[in-house]
Amino acid sequence: MKISARNRFKGKVVDVKKGATTAHVRIDLGNGLIVTSSITNEAVDELELTVGSDAYAVIKASDVMVAID
């Protein structure tokens, strides 16, 4: 796999919850860190994502905001 995004983290799928059109996929990256992604149900099917599958969390963001009270 070649991809331009530099923030990619390998982990294991620990949960897949499909909704009407969108699924929430939780990926355990280790050390207690879990990332949740919202993707289409079609993408879940095409990637054959199931609990226990290896997967990458690829994070591409143009902005990161920080706030305080």
UniProtKB/TrEMBL annotation:
Record has Repeat as a keyword: no
Family matches, as InterPro entries: Mo/tungstate-bd_C_term_dom, Mop_domain, Transp-assoc_OB_typ1
Gene Ontology terms describing biological process: molybdate ion transport
Classification via Pfam families: TOBE
Keywords, in A-Z order: Molybdenum
Keyword Ligase annotated: no
Source taxon at top rank: Bacteria
Native organism: Rhizobium wenxiniae
Domain Mop: 2-68
Name this polypeptide is given: Molybdopterin-binding protein
